[in-house]
Amino acid sequence: MRREYWVYIFMAVALIAGLWAILAVGGDLTAPADLAGRWELIPLDERTATPAEMIVEQSGRYFQLSLGTGEFYRLELLQQQRFEGNEERELLMKLAGGGTVAEFHGPYRGKIYGFELTRNGQSRRWTALWVERTYRRPRDSSGIAAAPSDAS
């Protein structure tokens, strides 16, 4: 065989090996759940007496939380767990940054979550109602937008 053929064969093998390595390493990665949008916060403790609004902006694993009280937090996804709950899939997302930890817990792709914000050892808890999504709901395999469930 001529030398040019060996170069083409080597490049094809390198391409296949590279693609295999990328799929092997990235096969277990999952995208963070979407939390971007406008939320209504209903307080669960007496320290947070009035309902508030929160805007969540998200780019991959990076989040910006803006509370209606003027508080602003830049956070990064620390932990995401999807697990089987009592009747449906549950989601736990823990965000952290700058001494602040935020935690969302509720039904996967639901509209109502438990939300806890901890800063400097002080913890506040709300029920968070997803009022408006920034991005449209994902479509199912038939191409139809998934309808919100009654439980969410």
Task: Provide keyphrases for this structure.
152 residues, 16% helix, alpha+beta, Lipocalin, 47% strand
Structure at a glance:
Helices cover 16% and strands 47% of the residues. It has one helix at 3-26; strands at residues 37-43, 52-59, 62-67, 72-84, 89-97, 100-107, 112-119, 122-133.
Please provide a written account of the structure.
It is a single chain. This protein is of the alpha+beta class. It folds into 2 domains: 30 residues; 97 residues, Lipocalin. The chain is built from 1 helix and 8 strands, in the order αββββββββ. The chain has an 8-stranded antiparallel barrel. The model has no long low-confidence stretch (mean pLDDT 84).
H/E element string?
A: HEEEEEEEE
- The dominant shape is elongated
Head-to-tail CA distance between termini: 65 Å
The largest sheet, given as strand count, sense and whether it forms a barrel, is: 8 strands, antiparallel, barrel
Strand order, biggest sheet? 1-2-3-4-5-6-7-8
Relative helix content: 10-25%
Rg (C-alpha, Å): 21 Å
CATH class value of the largest domain: Mainly Beta
Regions with pLDDT < 50 over 5+ consecutive residues? none
* Overall pLDDT confidence: 84
List the domain count as a whole number: 2
Q: What CATH architecture label of the largest domain applies?
A: Beta Barrel
- Number of helical elements: 1
Count of DSSP strands: 8
- Percent of sequence in beta strands: over 45%
